[in-house]
Amino acid sequence: VVGRSAASFGFDLSSVAGCHRLVDALRGRRFDYVFLTIGSWPDYAEPLTADGIEKVIALDLVARHVVLSRLVADGLLEPGAVVVNTLASAVSFPMASAVAVKVRLRNNRAPKNLIFALLPVALAADAYLLGAPERFPDLHFLGVFPGLVDTDIVKTYIPPPLLPIYRFLLWPFSISEDESGTAHLAIAASPNARRRPVSYWTYLLEARFAHRAIYDKSLVDFVWDYLQTTAEAKAPNPPEP
Questions:
Q1: Is 145 helix (H, G, I), strand (E, B) or coil?
Q2: First-to-last CA distance in the chain?
């Protein structure tokens, strides 16, 4: 968390309760920018969180929704604040559809094919952003594709003996975390970021249309209903009076 001073916190955001504890710790601060970057690749050895939610869905969607909703509800965001959601925004791929997104969320399990495990969730995230201005009209929302960044997130999917091969193959196409971070800051600080309630960007500083599937209003409403219902069902019990 960076404002007039910097502070770091450690919470398990794979659980809804952990997301609430994070926002509880942020009380007393107000923010102009929020960067939602938490995420996961499929973990086929231990696929579910303590809440019983598949880990990609839990971290890429549920955790971000819970944190953002609580930040708004607790008045921790300045009017006109910019919310940056980092995932595979505006990425086009074959066989993408609103139906595929709904099936992925309802099944609550990650397909063995990595593309079908991750990209429907990315579409759901873009649909979530598309519906955000209706719910939070005082904010600006940016979906950002961070590029191919070599991080430790792949360790849940690629066996350790194969990691050197993976990194060798990825190297010609990847960018560093610093390069991706600099692109995020440039996009968030750009006046263009505030011209529309929601927009989608790449690490190359290009604005793009999102995948056509997300402009289905029924998908937007489905994603919001799914996340709100899940957040409420997994929310910690309020303390006894």
A1: strand
A2: 31
